[in-house]
Amino acid sequence: xxxxxxxxxxxxxxxxxxxxxxxxxxxxxxxxxxxxxxxxxxxxxxxxxxxxxxxxxxxxxxxxxxxxxxxxxxxxxxxxxxxxxxxxxxxxxxxxxxxxxxxxxxxxxxxxxxxxxxxxxxxxxxxxxxxxxxxxxxxxxxxxxxxxxxxxxxxxxxxx
Amino acid sequence: xxxxxxxxxxxxxxxxxxxxxxxxxxxxxxxxxxxxxxxxxxxxxxxxxxxxxxxxxxxxxxxxxxxxxxxxxxxxxxxxxxxxxxxxxxxxxxxxxxxxxxxxxxxxxxxxxxxxxxxxxxxxxxxxxxxxxxxxxxxxxxxxxxxxxxxxxxxxxxxxxxxxxxxxxxxxxxxxxxxxxxxxxxxxxxxxxxxxxxxxxxxxxxxxxxxxxxxxxxxxxxxxxxxxxxxxxxxxxxxxxxxxxxxxxxxxxxxxxxxxxxxxxxxxxxxxxxxxxxxxxxxxxxxxxxxxxxxxxxxxxxxxxxxxxxxxxxxxxxxxxxxxxxxxxxxxxxxxxxxxxxxxxxxxxxxxxxxxxxxxxxxxxxxxxxxxxxxxxxxxxxxxxxxxxxxxxxxxxxxxxxxxxxxxxxxxxxxxxxxxxxxxx
Lengths: 160, 425
Prior knowledge:
Chain A is an alpha/beta fold. Chain A is built from 8 helices and 7 strands. Chain B folds into 2 domains: 5-265, Aconitase, domain 3 (2-Layer Sandwich), CATH 3.30.499.10; 270-424, Aconitase, domain 3. Chain B is built from 15 helices and 18 strands. The longest helix of chain B is centred in the first third of the chain and has 17 residues, at 73-89.
């Protein structure tokens, strides 16, 4: 169970605004995090606190395959992402690096910027403490849950 | 239940008699690709996980194309890390300054990907190779690292949308216009998690370059992959180029599709995607009426940097001049294309018109270098994405179009189609 403040984003947030390509001349996680969300919300880096949660609409993470995008978000201290849907490469990348993500249309519609929410990773239950609402996210498929439980794809391969 | 082309390829690579949509499988890989941006992240993960060797030195391609020739010191470090890794592990298909090209133009040209192959690449436009009848999809760097180590990748078997093409293309209408038209119709997540399978008698109207361009932009509709039925043209393209055994898979007659979308190629007009999503499409007629003044054009990229794209641009620019205050940047995607442009006189045409011709690089497409836009500037580009800040300043604008439209716009200084030039005569 985690609890955090919400940063709300719209539909079709692409990886170019999550981490602009002008910063892809490094794979350093901390450097990438310094520019997280820069082209969609220049204040994000200043505002975010460890444990905060990103909530977005349809097709989050569309565009480039750059793993730098979920890395920048994870390194920023974001505890999880909730969106209506994800672009498929972003979805894989987040799972593969151990960044928890959930799909939930009702939560995306119900949660506003600045709300405080709780997320139960095991049940997928999302509680909006600011509005006294709960939403049920799709639980992760078992196959993917195992990758997450082992801390990411390469860790799961090593344990085989 | 019958299988789609994609499902047949995945079943074969998972060692299963059949698969169905939604099934999770482990598939063997015929090629694992990375570039100078994504490979360093993969190499870091590969080494951190303690892997000592790659699964097959001949089935990994590392292409230094995004920020190469190195744009700055950090980019140089990243290319060096990739180069050192390639040398250390004896990677056969390592392409660097001198023989590198834009990866998704280079791999098909070199015959490294073929029909029936199962390919992953740490670059979203890896879906390009579906033009050859391969299953080919973009992944992240961790998947690339796992692929380099094990030669396998997990997939959720996708369902498919079938695009049934009929008719002939009109003059100055290309594969770029067809795929922009389709994305405009179904949206940037219209094929999310799914395959886009292209079939029908209209395929005969599409050159290999048209098909490569269309499969390339399947990701812009959210698709897992785009794939074309293999025909005589595909076989002719692979002949003499591909040196590994390959298999042609055709969809079962009773293959299940979520939807069939009919596309009459003869009805498609030159099409432009307006900022800031590839789905914001307008026909050239609608676009011209808006009289949009431009600052730059780019002809190049993994979408439209191929020889036929250069030929189209040259045909339009021959004997004409680039408008005042417009920068026209032409980027042949591979060394072979570059040499052909010299041999065929295209470079003379481009330079006489006032264009600059660059060495192969992804460069401006992703806002790396070689054509970055200032605040408020507008570019007509044959590239694949027009997101906020994609080619430079967050307040710049990219209009996605075909080489014909980009070249014509260079001449007029406004977003315009080639037929406007003919009217000006």
